[in-house]
Design a protein that fits this description.
about 270 residues, mainly alpha, MetI-like fold, about 75% helix, globular, transport, membrane, transmembrane, transmembrane helix
């Protein structure tokens, strides 16, 4: 009886400790975003917390700044291109990794997922040296290429997790009914992958849009994406306009997650 009572108390202490750590972690993640949102509505011309009032002047300043709006368009164009490239390459790679049977499969998986183990700065510098060696200057094409390398493992991992949970007998049934491999993949496999593809596309888009460590080394100085523009802006500007831009990026990420939650369900990601 004493042993059972001790186990119960140990479980309670463990659950309480887990709840405290989880709550503290959520606070550390959420509190900075709330502070940024609060600073963005500060009516005065300098960063202050708590705000002295409410004003949307800094959001208006963001949309009135041609350089910032141009950088947003660059980031949107690059992020959309990276998303398409990663989906086009990641889904077949995941399919080969899960359904394929060939020598060196483990080595291939390690190679495809290795960029996720590397800091973005390392990939950015490596891409810069690669471009310099082949006289491939920093440009949108270089940025899309380097960000695709960095983001590709996200698509592969999500697609692999979903493929591992699919019943291969559905593909066999499709083949028995006379469908070829491509038709089976397009009409049977892809529809089942749709939730994972939507989630992978959203995560890839957000990562490519917000990434600064890779973009800092590979973007064109005449058409800088938003994260790089913010990096330079924060060095010379102390107005809440930076908080306003950051708030808009937070809102974009929130909308993407809301879209996934409403269309797919966060509990179904990777399943």
């Amino acid at each position: 009886m004493r042993l059972a009572s001790g186990v119960v108390w140990a479980d309670r202490i463990g659950m309480a400790a887990l709840a405290i750590v989880t709550g503290f972690s959520i606070l550390l993640l959420v509190a900075p975003s709330l502070i940024v949102l609060a600073v963005s509505i500060e009516p005065r011309g300098y960063i202050s917390f708590p705000p002295s009032g409410f004003s949307l002047r800094w959001y208006e300043a963001v949309f009135a700044n041609r350089q910032l709006t141009d950088s947003v368009l660059v980031s949107l164009r690059v992020a959309f291109s990276v998303m398409l490239v990663c989906l086009a390459l990641g889904v077949p790679a995941a399919f080969a990794s899960v359904r394929g049977a060939f020598a060196g499969k483990g080595a291939l998986n390690a190679f495809l997922l290795s960029p996720q183990m590397m800091p973005g700065m390392v990939i950015g510098i490596a891409s810069l040296f690669f471009g310099a060696y082949f006289a491939f200057r920093a440009s949108d094409a270089m940025l899309i290429l380097s960000l695709s390398v960095f983001c590709l493992p996200f698509v592969i991992r999500i697609a692999m997790a979903r493929l591992a949970g699919l019943d291969p007998r559905l593909d066999e049934a499709s083949a028995n009914l006379g469908a070829g491999k491509l038709e089976t993949f397009a009409r049977v496999t892809v529809p089942q992958l749709a939730p994972a593809l939507l989630a992978a596309g959203a995560f890839t888009f957000i990562e490519a849009f917000d990434n600064v460590t890779v973009a800092l080394f590979t973007s064109d100085v005449r058409a800088r994406p938003l994260p790089v523009e913010l990096y330079y802006l924060v060095q010379f500007d102390s107005s809440p306009v930076i908080a306003a831009i950051s708030s808009l990026e937070i809102g974009l990420s929130f909308l993407a997650m809301l879209l996934i939650a409403r269309t797919v369900g966060l509990d179904r990601l990777g399943r």
